[in-house]
Fold each of these.
Amino acid sequence: MPFVILEKSDRVGGRIQTDEVEGFLLDRGFQVLLTAYPEAQNYLDYEALDLRKFVPGALIRFNGKFRSFIDPTRQLSAIFSTAMSPVANFSDKLKMASLRKDCKKKTLDQIYSSEEISTFDFLKSKRSFSDLVIESFFRPFLGGIFLEKKLETSSRFFEFVFNMFGRGHAALPASGMSEIPNQLASQIAGEKIQFNREVISFTSDSVSTRGSDQSVENIDASAVVLACEEPVAAKLLGFRPPPQNHVWNFYFDAAQSPVGDNILVLNGTGKGPINNLCVPSRLSENYAPKGRALVSVTSLSDSQNVKDFQDQDGETLESAVRDQLIEWYGDPAREWRSLPKYKICNALPRQLSTPKISHDLPTGVFTCGDYLEIASSNGAMRSGRATSEKVVSYLNSKQ
């Protein structure tokens, strides 16, 4: 079937983007690919992506020191350090093993149909984890995934994520996260994608677009798919989007890595602007020029209100981030050179419950996006696949 993809920006990928700046690869926001994602396994060539894996666990800043908290079933050498780690009591560690086992054996259909409460209530009430491990580990770890600190996100989202972590690894493509959409786009003839074309209106049989030169073009269509983030879909369809989660991502050029492994660093203190930190150049030498290290810092927003987030002062926040980095890593962090920072509005749908379509669509118009699934790259691909099947069925019915 003939088709055309209209892309507002100058590249594919949506929120998955990588910028090259002075020899550094800067992903727009800290993102990873979970290798167990079923849709990713179906559509991506992992070998071609040259995936670099994170250690299955975290280094947690706690009581003035960095404490190792690694899954000993995945890395046997960590069994002693994790057993002695003060970020969780002995009972928590047993419950963690039980939780990992229970989540891993569930099918995705079972997760999608399980009881739905907030992640915090699931951890506290259903699994009886202590405040100690919730505050030191779960809140910063899951906060970096959900992009919200209160753990209000649906427990189904949590179970899905924990299932994926249990079945595979968190990884980065060796040349940046943008290699994922680039690989998918490489399977489509170039002329099928029109860049710098913004959709300004549509009907079920026509789409009106505006180019970067402000030229307007109308395109006849047999079906229309809105494959975009929720606020854009809301604008085009005329409904009010639910709140979104926003995030800051800061990058620094360091003479050497402050972290000695391919591991995620979490702020288990509950204080300061840093939620999590990693050094992508530890995983892949492509992320930084030779002899340099790239440090990535994530800072979560306290508000889902877009205007409040847009009004935040990045320079003031970056200064506070650097102060905390100096507290953690000493004087060398004073010398780290600031690289571009990313203020990412609508970084992730705020999913307090499993997504449900709450608006009517005109005949011949379809939507897809991660906001219609458990929000993730897997959700985006799952939604795209399901929508394509609906479109094919619809077009066949018209013949």
Amino acid sequence: MIPNPESHLKRWEQNGNIIIGMTNSPQHFRIGHPHVLGFKHIRLALGFHPQLATDNYQELSLFKSLFSSTSYIGEVGLDFSKDFIHSKDVQLSSFAYICECLRGQNKIVSVHSRKGEVETLNMLKEYSVNNVIFHWYSGPLRLIEEIVVAGYYFSVNEAMTISESGRKIISRIPLDRILTESDAPFNRKSNIKNALTNLGISEYQIYNNFQTLLNRIK
């Protein structure tokens, strides 16, 4: 969804940056996956975005057929914000299906959990889903410790580091559970270097956190 994505990826590949690109649907993944196969540092995740659960419900079988094509899953999860609460039942059904696919598997999983953080965490634990990253977490502060105890991570972007609510959340996350994200092209404050500066965390720390997570799926 970024303009001229291949030139964008080539530039980042030349710089040695590691990028995990999220997709919104299995069809989105199927279209994009062949274009990243030649890159060393770029991977594409298989997604089923909760905001599109109703439109893409028929693609769940495609999700399962593509499951073995990648070690990365995302975005998947739940969104119970006011614009999407109407599809709650479809989202829960879809996410349960995805969690069953993930049960005990060694994948790295990026989850969307807006206004459905408790339900997202409970389902992940119920289905024994490993190696989870909570993307742009905006939920209750009290839940952060439970997410950490479950062994999960948080991905943080520049926008989070400059908002009061985002800083409160970040202050509760252990340094070894923080990863960086851009959420481009939807997020205008998506500069990773700015995020690191605002976090006061080195690139080495983030790389080491990711490498620890990556070692779990090898």
Amino acid sequence: MNVLLVEDNVLLGDAVRDHIAADGHSVDWCLNLAQATEAAGTGKYGVILLDLRLPDGNGLTLLKTLRTQENSVPVIILTAHDQTSDQIEGLRSGADDFLVKPFGLSELSRRMKAANKH
């Protein structure tokens, strides 16, 4: 599966990328919203792992754009926002799942598999 990782934290991004690659998936990693928007537009991803707080905007902007374009790629939000209201907003915007940082990499793998089956 091709995975788009959108994460501006280099330490976390490295760990997630390496873990996903070790699971046998290919990973494209974007550090900001502009790169992620361009990459997501290619339509080549089986799942998108999306941080909300990015240096050039909010990841929900990308999520809402994808859903407006009727792009149904599974999106899992990865964020430090742990408020219930943030989770509700993400899910209402079209996210398939929501993981609060810090999270276990094995949990991420399970959720990616589940999201990709839908």
Amino acid sequence: MSGPVRLETRGLDALYGDFAAVKDVSLRFPANRVHALIGPSGCGKSTFLRTLNRMHETVPGAWIKGQVLLDGEDVYARGVSPIQLRRRVGMVFQKPTPFPFMSIADNVAAGLRIDRSLDKSRIAEIVERSLRRAALWDEVKDRLGASAMGLSGGQQQRLCLARSIAPEPEVILLDEPTASLDPQGTQRIEELVFELKEEFTIVIVTHNMQQAARVSDTTTFFYLGAMVEHGETKQIFTAPREERTEAYITGRFG
């Protein structure tokens, strides 16, 4: 695989609430590529994704064993702040999650408030730049002080993407980001994913095989918590090595 490895897991076991466990997953995610995670519901995709920035820790009883390395450093090492980690590894969820009592501008700036060295003018610059990168600026520039809840579903999801990229993360995690969107909203998000990989490493969970084929460079197939197969997306979809991968891709189960 081309490019330096930005993110890596080694022998990762995890359990997230009542969801499927993840068993002994070792994966490497090179920089500036889009990596798709596919598989049936409950197979561990989202559980795995949440371990990459310790988001699973928000659920009582969740645990992991093994390592998650970001630029070669274990994100679970003693002294690593989950809050600071999530600035470096941003996440966008299946349903848009704008903060309901904040304006559009304040939603984007939410992750910037931790850095007390940023003054108001600098924050405003970052908000505009982030909204432009999320292809939302032209649609909201005249109502930045309005409630984010007044945006459409697709706009809200792009707002969440802008909020995620505002702190300049190294990695963006997308957990079925178009599942609740209409076809037009889905297309906009997919176009953004393709553009943003020039700046970020992106890991996306999707149930849509066509979407995985369109947007990703590499694909990993999960089944019953195990990583069955990982490789270049073209190879996975045209010449899978594992029979279970082929069966899933061709619709025989899932």
